[in-house]
Amino acid sequence: MAIEDIEELPGVGEKLAEKLREAGFGSVESIAAASLNDLKEVGMGEASAIKIVSAARENLNMGFETGLDALKKRESIGKITTGSKELDKLFGGGIETQAITELYGQFGSGKTQLAHQLSVNVQLPVDKGGLNRSAVYIDTENTFRPERIIDMAKALKLDPNKILKNIHVARAYNSDHQILLAEKAAEFAKESNVGLVVVDSLIAHFRAEYTGRGTLADRQQKINRHMHLLQRKLADPNNLAILVTNQVMARPDILFADPTAPVGGHIVGHTATFRIYLRKSKGDKRVARMVDSPSLPEGECIFEVTGEGIKDASTKD
Q: What is the CA radius of gyration of the chain?
């Protein structure tokens, strides 16, 4: 018989279940995907942690599977429209669930505008390119603007108040608070029917708090834990999409090409499923380039950031 609640796992009583939920392990799936160190931090001994994780994984049959089984699981993945057909095409149909999508680019390149638009679009019906689910917005740079959400909702003939009510916004004041908010989101993701988690931006606090070459290793380890938390505790067990925006830096060793590079190094690059570079173009136009994807080819497209939101680029100059 399949185990559905964490209290059904061997050795998990009411008090331990409460501790696990407070730490973000509210489902059998999240415990199955956890490391032993994650559970030991909750206050469990190694033997108990091994027993619980093993039971959760056995229940979910987390061994090898055939390619056909993997294909069947992929059928459960949802996609959120960006509002631009060309941009959706670049993403292979929209922003994927069970994945981390990273947008990086200079200020004004459209990262936050896309984050706002997707927070609206995730609430659309499935046949309109949404998931009919709510959004979580972790704001690290004080860039969330409800007025912008209202404009985008009205353009789609949606009730702005209803749309705003389904966006759970929190301002993160430092990197520890940012990680805590991600853990809190994992706690209520299922009960609030969350389909999208936005972190805008991923790197700002880490970049400000860890300065100097001597702190680089600590910073990278902390970012790594944060990214894996987003994937293991949010994206995978809840079949939701993660969107992170990232800052950029100029690489002095590149003289004859675009020197713009995302901050965060290989840690962010390896953990993000999709990496998209955004840059300004003429007027309201923006250029998006698919830099890395496990299944999609590299490519570029042009879209527009208008008063009504993200649209396909007009043919007029």
A: 20
CATH number, domain at 185?
3.40.50.300
Residue 227 lies in a domain: yes
Q: Reduced to 3 states, what is the DSSP secondary structure of residue 240?
A: coil
Cα atoms in the Cβ-side hemisphere of radius 13 Å centred on 231 = 17
User: How many of the other CB atoms lie within 10 Å of CB of 265?
Assistant: 13
pLDDT of residue 213: 84
- Stated pTM of the model: 0.84
Instruction: State residue 23's pLDDT score.
Output: 81
Q: What is the pLDDT of residues 207-241, one digit of tens each?
A: 999 988 889 899 999 999 999 999 988 999 899 99
> Burial, 263: exposed, middle or buried (Cβ in 10 Å; 0-12, 13-18, 19+)?
middle
- For the chain, what is the domain count? 2
3-state SS class at 285: strand
Measuring CA to CA, how many Å separate 226 from each of 271, 285, 303? 10, 33, 31
Q: Is the peptide bond before 109 cis (omega within 30 degrees of 0)?
A: no
Assess contact for 216 and 210: CB atoms under 8 A.
yes
The amino acid sitting at 164 is L
Strands (E), 210-254: 241-246, 248-250
DSSP E strand boundaries for the chain: 79-80, 95-96, 99-104, 134-139, 167-171, 194-200, 241-246, 248-250, 260-262, 274-280, 285-292, 299-306, 309-312
**What domain range includes position 22?**
6-60
Are residues 223 and 300 both part of a single domain? yes
pLDDT at 95 over 70: yes
Cβ(117)–Cβ(152) under 8 Å?
yes
pLDDT score at 317:
54
Handedness of CA 27, 48, 64, 4 (dihedral sign): negative
Residues of the chain with pLDDT > 70: what percent?
97
